[in-house]
Structures are given as C-alpha cells and as structure tokens.
Design brief:
CATH class of one domain: Mainly Alpha
Number of helices: 34
Structural class: alpha+beta
Shape: globular
Radius of gyration: 30 Å
Largest sheet: 6 strands, antiparallel
CATH topology of one domain: Transferase(Phosphotransferase), domain 1
Length: 749
C-alpha cells in the first residue's frame, strides 16, 4: 500500500536521510531491514545501500567465537540460526544466535539459557544435542547439532499445497506412523530424564534424512529437578494457537505431567494424517471452548484410508480425560509400532456409553431437559396421537414448518453475506482493489445497512477522506442514522478529514463500545492505513488492536489477519509473520489473496516461500500482480531482461492493470528507452487517471528530456478520455508554460 516516489534522485536523498538518522540514533539496520521498509523499491534500496556502505547484501557475521558462519538457515522473532563450522573440532553446527537486545531481551535470554541447560542434559539421537553456549561481542549463542532437513510444519505446508500427493500409498502412510513413533520414543527419553517439553508441535520437530525426526526447542520445558518455572512468553503468542495443548495445560493445572506431551504428539499425528488441525475456532475464546469441551472430528472422516486401529491410537493419545490417554510416550510409540506391524493394539476404542457420558457432561442442561422430555413423551404418547388428529395441531405444525423454512432462508442469507464480505476484503487488500466493487454491492443488496460493506466502500477511496466521508454519509441517509457502528465510522472519517470537533460529537452519539469492528479500524488509524512509514512502537500498538479485534470477532475476518501480517512484515518480526501467515493459510487455504499476501511480505525475508506463492498465483489466476513480484525478484538479482519478460507476460495476462504498466515504464526509463517508458506511463494514466504517481512519472520524464510538445499531446489525450481530470489539467498547464518559455528557440532537448 505504500506509495514510493518514482524519482530515483529524490528517493536517494530520502534513503540517505533515513540511514543517517538511524546511525545517529544508534540503530543498526541491515539491507533486508531497509528493503522491508520500502516494499516495491528493493532494487533501489540495494543500490543506495551499496553506495553508502560498499556492501551488497545483509550478510551474517563471518565469525562468532570459534565458529565460522557459512550461511543462514532460518530466523525467528528473537534470533537467527546459522550453519557454522566449529574450528576447534572441525564439525558443522547449527548456531542459534539471540538478536534481541536491551530490556526486552531478558525473557529471551532466560529462555535461551533454559533451552541450553535442559537440552545439554539429554543424550538421544532424536533430540537436538547442545554442544556449547556462550557470549561473544554482545551476541548470545547456542551451538547445536546440525540436522539437515525441514520442520514437520514446513513438510505439512508443502503437502497442503499438493494434497493429492499426501498418503497416497500404504508406504507413505506407515512412513508417517514410523516418524511419529520415533519422535515419541525421543520424548519418552526426555521424560525419563525428568524433562517435560510442554511445547511439542510440528514446528518443533525437524525431519532429517530418511524422515528421522529430531525434537527441538526446550525453551518452555519443565525440569522436575527445580520445579516449574515461570512461563516464558514469545513474540506473537496470541497467534501461536494452542492447538497441541492438552486441556489441563490450557487450564493451567499445576499437576501437569508427561501425558500432556502425549496429547501434543497425538495432535501432531492427527494433523500429519489428515492435513487438518484438530480444532478450528473463529476466536481465541471459541477455540479454547472447543479444546476444553469438544471432541475433534474423527480422523477417519477426514482420511477414510486410515486403518481402524490407527484411528483408535490417535483418539487415545488425544483423550480429553488424561486418565484415558497413554500413560507414557513409550506406550504410545509401542501401539504405533503394532499398527505398523499389523499386530493388535493395546488401546481400546471409546465405548458408546463413554461417548454418551461425555456428551452429557458437555451439555448438562440439554441432557437434563432431554431426559424430562423423554419421560413426558413416553407418558403422553397416546394423548399426543389424538391431538395430532385435530385441526388445531395441524395448523401449528404448518406454522412450525413455515418457521423452519424461514430460518433456513435466514441462515442461507447470512452465509451468502459472509461469503461476499470475505471475498470483498480479500479483493480490497489485493494488488487490484477495483475488483471488490461487485462483491460489496452484492452484500449491500442483501443487507443495505451492512456496516462492513459500507466500511469497505469507504476504504476503497480512503486516500481521499472527504470522498470516503461522503460514502458513509450516503449510507447514513439511507439508514435513518440508527446504526451506532455507522455513526462511529462517520466519526472515523471526520477525523481523517480534519474535522475533530464534529468527530467527537459523532463518537458520543455512537456510544462507548469496544467491538471487533471498531478495534480493527482503530488499528488501521494507528497504522495510518500503512500508507506512511512508522516506527516500531506505533506498529506494535496497531498489532495489539488487530489482535483484540480477532478475539472479539464472532468469525475469522481476512482483513484482521492480513493486517497483522502486514504490520509484522514492517516490524521484521518473523515469528509474528509466520503465525499470522499460518492463520491466513488455515482459514483461507485456497484464496488467491492468501498467496498474494505471502508473496508480498515474504519476498524480503523468505524468497523461496514468496516465489512459490507467486508461481501458484501465475498458475491459478489471470492476475498481473504476481508477474510484478517475479519481475521485482529478478531485478534484485540484477536480471533486467528477465524482469522485462515477466512484465510483458503480466500485461498479456491482464492488460488493464495500471501498476504493471507503470513498473514496466520505470524499467524502460532506467534502460534509456524513453519512448517506451512514455507509452507505459500514459497507458497507466488512462487506466487509472486518479493516480497522481503515474502523472508525476510522466511529467518527470518530459521534464528530464524537455519534450514539452509531446507532453502537450499526452495530457490533451488524457483530457479527451477523462474530461476535467485535475491531474491532467495541472500537467497540461505546466507543459504550456514550459513550451512558452522555450520560444522562440523551440523545444529544449
């Protein structure tokens, strides 16, 4: 959403000022950090960075203590992991380095030390061994065994992208079973040493060669030797949904034991077998309610190829009552071994009586009422049969049927409205927000006063606050002003238009309520619509508001999670980014907008993941935007020929997408092809004449060349197509003034 100035000279001055200010404030930012601050301008940032520093990349440290750093393996919210070589022993290690400093670093330091101390006590091939820990030049590090592979979470993400390849054979199925069996045996070894992991999940299981799992991250573990330590929180914990926590762990029971880890292993196996998480909740509260009171959908329903015994094993490991779970992780592993060997398992399926008892516990009032109704029905059956013959009862039955039909219509209407709103906001937050109009119009035809749809219409023109305010005023006139959320939205845009006194009156009329709708738009105000460059505290305040909106919302909203991802990308908070992206992939796994967001925000930090998303978009949509991303990636590599090919293909896919015309024009201009740049800038203007950036690019091109006669032709042609366009009138006036000043010597070149 950020609009960068197209003039390279002005951008260079802006970047220089920002870089000098950061140096003066003691902020040590790297190339990737600056590229994240200027999305869409990464190539220019790299060029200016090289001029200022003589560097070409945001390189990791070459040496930490006696470790020679080879390359980065990954990063999180508090640190990075590098592949390094131990000079003393001549072996490769994974070097985990804490990159958080100052007062905020204390929780991370505590977790770092705890992870090192606990993992160093464990000696098992399925647990990542810690070799060394220390500090050097202000960096805290842990040297661990290097495991070549990917996390189970990444493996499952890849499988979700190609679900047809998942468990397509008996061999693949039992490969998953053997992998979780090995992981369970490693966890049992930790339990035998008095360590309870408490954070087992796919992201903490590394899958190495031959699918051998290795357990990572003992930073939240409990050591029975010193009792339970205080909880060590992590960045983005709100979005790290506790889908793998046992109910007693969610409740905060002090008597937590190894069966909590058994539950987490069972939940991990559930996801590996079905590619679905065990529970899904629109809000944190509803998710917790399900985790504490509900049973997950049977794995058999999600994957009908699974053997019955394997389903029983998963159900037993994930039993809500821990006394019904496997006593140890080893018992769980042994039953998985029996499944793989086609031998009878020890666990028994849950009986119907137990299922009925669980249902009654979860639904006490309904169960009691059902019992009373059953007795009443039995005792009054004969009388009921007589009454059914009467015309009065027949009339009541007809009325009930009509009520049921009406309720069904209301339900379908609500679902359709939600579908349209979801589509609209996905389109609004895409590279081409023009496509949101039909969805918003259709939503308003179902519910004329729908505040979410009206807010979407206003947001589409929010760059012009008076115009956005007019959208809300029109809606208020049609709704008699009775909707408090609409009054609050009017106050929001009154403030944006600089009319604070009127905004206060509207806010008082709307009342003091904390709703998901208001919290989200307050977050957008805090983030300034992501149209301005903000410091970290302001962005984190916006994230907090978005998170509160998520917990308040009755159902998942695309814009909430998308905005968290956008803010996390600006903050360079990888852990928060991953959590927000996981939520988008979970709730909207096939939506192009999900892939568009991942492509946009991950390109500076995880190029392979971003490129995979871009290629998915190219294959599954006819949008030009992903071609822009692929071209931008080529430009960061200095391959302008490849970038030009991507732009050409994108224009062939979607000729009316103005940004790609402008971007190709910028590349033409950089390569000295001025006439080609002129044609592209003019094409972008004719598609979107309200966009000042395109006019500025074309005016700057003409100003550079002194080609004012051509400028007159261009801007007159715009006025023919778009009479009264203010930007064209201003540009035409400039061209005439310059042309008059050049006479009688003619056109300056």
């Amino acid at each position: 959403m950020t609009q960068s100035t197209p003039e390279e000279a002005l951008f260079a001055l802006e970047f220089l000022a920002r870089h000098q200010a950061d140096l003066a404030a003691g902020r040590q930012l790297g190339l990737a950090d600056y590229q994240a601050l200027y999305p869409g301008r990464e190539a220019l940032v790299a060029e200016e960075w090289r001029r200022l520093t003589g560097d070409v990349a945001d390189r990791p440290p070459q040496r930490i203590a006696h470790y020679l750093v080879e390359r980065e393996l990954g990063s999180g919210g508090q640190g990075r992991v590098y592949l390094a070589r131990d000079e003393r022993l001549g072996r490769q290690v994974a070097l985990k380095v804490l990159h958080v400093h100052g007062p905020m670093a204390q929780p991370y330091l505590a977790r770092f030390r705890r992870e090192a101390e606990i993992a160093a006590r464990l000696d098992h091939p399925g647990i990542c061994t810690v070799f060394d820990t220390g500090q050097c030049d202000g960096l805290t590090y842990i040297a661990m065994r290097y495991v070549a592979g990917v996390s189970l979470a990444e493996r499952l993400r890849q499988l979700r992208a190609d679900p047809d390849a998942h468990l397509g054979s008996t061999e693949a199925l039992f490969g998953v079973v053997r992998m979780i069996e090995r992981a369970a045996r490693a966890v049992h070894a930790a339990h035998q040493a008095g360590i309870l992991h408490r954070d087992l999940k796919p992201g903490n299981i590394m899958v190495g060669e031959a699918d051998v799992p290795v357990i990572l991250d003992f930073g939240l573990a409990r050591d029975d030797r010193d009792g339970d330590s205080a909880a060590l929180t992590r960045t983005g914990e709100l979005f790290g949904t506790p889908l793998y926590m046992a109910p007693e762990q969610l409740r905060g029971d002090a008597s937590l034991d190894r069966r909590a880890d058994v539950y987490a292993l069972g939940a991990t196996l559930y996801e590996a077998l079905t590619l679905h998480r065990p529970y899904e909740g629109a809000t944190r509260e509803s998710l917790f309610s399900q985790l504490l009171d509900s049973e997950p959908v049977s794995v058999k329903k999600l994957n009908r190829t699974l053997p019955r015994d394997l389903c029983v094993v998963v159900e037993t490991a994930m039993a809500r009552e821990r006394d019904r779970r496997y006593r140890t992780a080893e018992d769980f592993a042994e039953d998985l071994r029996r499944v793989g060997e086609y031998r009878p398992i020890e666990a028994s399926p849950t009986s119907r009586a137990v299922r009925a008892w669980r249902w009654c516990r979860r639904n006490r009032a309904v169960a009691a009422l059902s019992g009373l109704l059953f007795v009443a029905l039995c005792s009054g059956l004969a009388a009921s049969l007589v009454l059914l013959r009467s015309s009065e009862e027949a009339r009541r039955q007809l009325q009930d049927s009509l009520t049921d039909i009406q309720a069904g219509r209301q339900s379908r209407r609500s679902r359709e409205l939600e579908r349209l709103l979801s589509n609209a906001y996905q389109q609004l937050y895409s590279a081409d927000p023009r496509t949101a109009g039909p969805s918003l119009d259709a939503a308003l035809s179902i519910e004329p006063g729908c505040v979410e749809a009206i807010a979407g219409r206003a947001f589409a023109v929010s760059a012009d606050p008076p115009r956005a305010l007019a959208v809300v005023d029109d809606a208020l006139r049609g709704s008699s002003g009775a909707n408090p959320e609409l009054r609050w939205l009017r106050a929001y845009y009154l403030r944006a238009a600089g009319r604070a006194d009127e905004a206060e009156l509207e806010e008082r009329a709307a009342g003091a309520r904390e709703t998901a709708f208001r919290l989200y738009w307050l977050g957008m105000r805090q983030a300034k619509g992501f149209m301005a460059k903000l410091e970290a505290p302001a962005l984190r305040a916006a994230v907090a508001l978005f998170q509160r909106a998520i917990t308040r919302s009755a159902r998942p909203r695309f814009q909430h999670h998308h905005s968290v991802l956008m803010a996390a990308a600006r903050l360079r908070d990888r852990e928060l980014m991953d959590a927000a992206a996981a939520d988008l992939e979970f709730h909207w796994p096939e939506a192009p907008a999900t892939f568009d967001a991942i492509a946009q925000f991950y390109l500076p930090v995880d190029r392979p993941r971003a490129l995979a998303a871009l290629r998915w978009l190219v294959e599954h949509t006819r949008q030009a935007a992903p071609y822009c991303g692929l071209a931008q990636e080529a430009l960061t590599r200095g391959d302008t020929a490849a970038a030009m090919r991507w732009y050409d293909q994108g224009i062939a896919a979607q000729a009316d997408f103005a940004p790609i015309r402008w971007l190709r024009g910028m590349l033409h201009r950089k390569r000295g092809a001025h006439q080609e740049a002129r044609r592209d800038f003019l094409a972008a203007i004719l598609i979107e004449p309200q966009q000042d950036m395109y006019f500025r690019s074309l005016r700057h091109l003409h100003r550079e060349r002194g080609s004012w006669r051509e400028a007159l032709e261009d801007f007159e042609s715009v006025l023919v197509r778009h009479p009264g366009e203010a930007h064209a009138i201003e540009a035409l006036r400039e061209a005439r003034t310059e042309l008059d000043a050049a006479r009688p010597g003619g056109e300056r070149r």
